[in-house]
Amino acid sequence: MIYKEKFKIGLKDVWKGNQVSNKAILEYLEDIASYHSDQVGYGINTSEKTNLSWILLDWKVKVIQRPEYGKTLEIQTWSREIKKCYAYRDFKIYDEEGKLCVIATSKWLLINHHTGKIEKVEAEMAEKYQSEIEKSVFEEKEIEKIKEPEKYINSIIYQIRRNDIDIIGHLHNLYYLDIAYETLPKEVYEKRPFNQIRIMYKKEIKLGETVIGKYANVENKHLIGIYSQNEKILHAMIELKED
């Protein structure tokens, strides 16, 4: 089943050139994924009843062209595949002329948010999502892992604030990208927008924690690792490419 919604690009969603930002794109994708789960009975409004929540593990996004402020987008999403406790979800974003602007895929983990334990997706639940197994936006159906670089050349320290926290008490998925941007050297940051985005989430970050963002350039890929203050825990890896 393909689920569709319309989104209008607002002022907070654009950067220089009045074009939609990567953070706004991720926000739209996150929202429509939630709306789809709401519709099939496993969303935020029913989580207290089901005790189930989807935890995001991976993003892979490719921007083909960037719509501008004030334009209305049609976003499509669908469950591509559900295996054991994991779900793969794909996306397409179209502009007002019907041109394809963005393709994306993601990987999610089902957990019991009361016990914190991983849950298997039961057949009844999977059936409601009506997965489109043959409909993949990328040739590679598995999302490749991001390898940690051997050496970093830039770093920052960042303390998690109240307005960084989501409804379950963790650093919101979108704000990992903010930390990544803050970690970039100035000359790299000015190259935005990056049209290919990968985020691999490893370990949640909580209010008041201090993290270290570390930057490396490997084969024209901008790699950012987000680590615990003692650098023993990898919280996330982000990979940005210009094209």
What does this structure look like?
The protein has 243 residues and is an alpha+beta fold. Helix content is 18%, strand content 37%. The chain contains 5 helices and 10 strands, in the order E-H-H-E-E-E-E-H-E-H-H-E-E-E-E. It has helices at 22-40, 47-50, 123-129, 175-183, 186-189, and strands at 3-8, 52-63, 72-83, 86-94, 100-112, 154-159, 196-201, 210-218, 221-228, 234-241. A 10-stranded antiparallel β-sheet has the order 1-3-4-5-2-7-10-9-8-6. Strand 9 (221-228) and strand 10 (234-241) form a beta hairpin. It is globular, with a radius of gyration of 18 Å. The two termini are 31 Å apart. The model has no long low-confidence stretch (mean pLDDT 95).
Task: Give the helices and strands, then pairings.
Elements: E1 3-8, H1 22-40, H2 47-50, E2 52-63, E3 72-83, E4 86-94, E5 100-112, H3 123-129, E6 154-159, H4 175-183, H5 186-189, E7 196-201, E8 210-218, E9 221-228, E10 234-241
Antiparallel strand pairs: 1-3, 2-5, 2-7, 3-4, 4-5, 6-8, 7-10, 8-9, 9-10
Distance between the termini: 31 Å
Number of continuous helical runs: 5
Neighbour order of strands in the largest sheet: 1-3-4-5-2-7-10-9-8-6
Strand content: 35-45%
Task: Give start-end ranges of low-pLDDT stretches.
Answer: none
- Radius of gyration in whole Å, from Cα? 18 Å
**Please, what is the average pLDDT?**
95
Q: What shape does the CA trace take?
A: globular
Q: How are helices and strands ordered from N to C?
A: EHHEEEEHEHHEEEE
| SS class | alpha+beta
Q: Report the biggest beta sheet as strand number plus sense, adding barrel if it closes.
A: 10 strands, antiparallel
Measured as a percent range, the helix fraction is: 10-25%
Strand count:
10
